[in-house]
Amino acid sequence: MRRSKAKGFIPIFAFLLLLTPVLSPAQEARLEASLRGQRVYGSIEYTGSQSQEVLASLWDGLKAEITFQVRLYRQNRGFFSFIGDRLLIERRVSQIAYFDFYENRYKIQRDGEPFGGYSAEAEFLESFFSVASVELGEIEPSDAQNHYLLGRVRMMPVKIIAPLNIITLFSSGTAFITPWIETKLKARGEEQ
Amino acid sequence: MRLFQSSTTSVGLLVLILIFVLLIALIVVFSQQILINLAGVDVQANIVAYVVAIAFPLILLGLIVFQIVRLIRERAAGRSGSRLKTRLILFFVLIALLSSIPQALLSVNFINSAINFWLEARLGDALRGGLSISLEYYRGAVENLRSFNQSSLMPFVLQDLDRNPERLWKNVRTVNSEVQFIQIFTEDGSEVLFRGDQEGRLRNLARFDELTGDLPKEDREDVSLLRNASVYEVRGRQYTVVVGRLMPEDFDNKARRLTESLEIFNQLNRYKRLFRLVLIFFYFFFSFPIFLLSILVSFLLTEEIIRPIVNLEEATRRVAEGDFSFRILHRSADELSHLVGSFNRMVSELSHSREKLRQSEKISAWQEIAQRLAHEIKNPLTPIKLSAQRILKKYTAGPQTERGEFQKVLEASISAIVREVDNLNDLLVEFREFARLPMPRLQSIALRELVEDVAEMYTNLSANVTIDSSHISEDSLIRGDPNQIKQVFANLLRNAIQAMPKGGEISVRSGDVNKENRRYCRIWIKDSGEGIPEEIRTRVFEPYFTSKREGTGLGLAIVERIIFDHDGNIWFETQEGVGTTFIIDLPLGLRDEF
Q: Which residues of A touch B131 (CB under 8 A)?
């Protein structure tokens, strides 16, 4: 299967080589796809082991950031398969977490808007590390077997403000990026 | 008159400096934007920033390499000014380095000091202390509302709810002056009382059942509100009592700024070492193009500086070669301009002096020619006169003279007159040829073919002499007028044959030479004659000078004149008893023109 994943450019690679960045260690994520009627939804969860690191940074008055990236692809079969699969849509959900010392609660902002406040750590972590039912447009249910989802997560235990975030180019410890994970979209009959 | 533009002067320099300043301003202005873009998450979205950040220094580097290669080639070709240009560029680079290195060291030191200063422990303590005070104040206010609303006084205060609400509000304020509003709801969520600041009034209660205990702080544009809710029973009915207060104006903004400052401080503190390295890296990342730009400008600036000097050198060379029509234009009013002015005046005066000298030389040459011509014409006049007198004398002697003797004298005298008149005619023809040599019509000529044509004529004239032209390359081309060059070879070969009365060999060969950046064909015509005596060697090319009894003395003068007219040169090497070699340099012919 050929995929139209993000393709780099030679100058970028040259630049990255110049900067000799240290690649982030691989982290894990879980991706689920669902079809409700004609609508496609993706749920993605970060399963890395940085929860204590995140909590520690929030208690230090810092913020943590997690970005979920989900893509819906349609497979190109037959003669045109060499040009790769077609990217239908991409959705990004960005969550920023911080600890509100005044209210003594963890708070999450999703895409810049207040999303929720949590007193319990477990509840907060579950909400922060996952995003459910990201809508990815509509497809013909009968054509579902020709579609699949790709997803990845970028997690920063400490959200570094610009332009300080330039240091993320130089250090692997500042951001964790999972590899792309694939999930097939099941046809209506295959869903359980 | 040919004019040479010496320098674009201040305008060119100004444009150069303007471009330099503009590029540096662009780097300074956009460096922060580039930094922000580079720090972005999405590589593809920031492709422009990446390309700019990589391509700009690479383009500058490429231009500098191009300039260096050009300079090396100029030096290899021996182009005038290239050595001076190299020295000046090295000087500029050295100056740039001398100013950049201390500046870089100072900047790195400054970055270190600034980071250490910003991240001083006291600053962190102060921020944390500020937050702690703010939290203490906030929690105190929350606690105050909670303790008041849950205090044992409240049931008594609420007794006035139906009877005297104004007294109820007055009593609340008397007991706790920090309470700024009170709002009381019935069980079904209907408001029965509100007193105090209208800002604190709860409207549109969506989830009334959650209205209990410390309510979440409500943030509005410029005010934040704290509330506490408790349930009381008054005369058999349940009421939810909400008491609250407005936090001081801008408290929320100030608190947010405080937490943000603490966040930045903690970020900096956590990644201090890395951030310092990144700052230093980016300092050099943005300084490097400026340094490259300085070097590039030094190349262009050097060109500007040395151009008048190179022009002056070129002009001096041209004048030395005899081109007095050369002038240099220089618009600025600096010392160089004075130098150029002096040079132009000097060349002008030199040209006038040379013209005068040429005039006087011409007059004296004509005087000499006139004297020689008079002498040459006078010589045959005597035998002509004597012959005529003899005829007259014999004729006047008349009958006494025998007829046969008169006829004999008449024949001899007429022969002498005819011979001398022929000599005079030859002399005048050659003189006319010398005086009226036409301007050469230049074209590319195959040298070997031309020499063989001339040699064929003279080989037949003298059986004892052989002419060898086999050493002339068949590809050898010269640029000249075929008729005039033929005359040159004819005169030289005739002289060579005359120099070898007992026979011998004449060898003609050729080769290419470089003289003053110009390519010439050098031709050697060597005989095995007696050589030229030392005492007459300096006069060989003088008109009317000859060592031969029957010569006019114009042959070699014509040869020299033709060669000079062709922008060439001629000289000879001779050794008595061994032979003479005439050497000619003529401009090379063009293969395309042939």
A: 61, 101
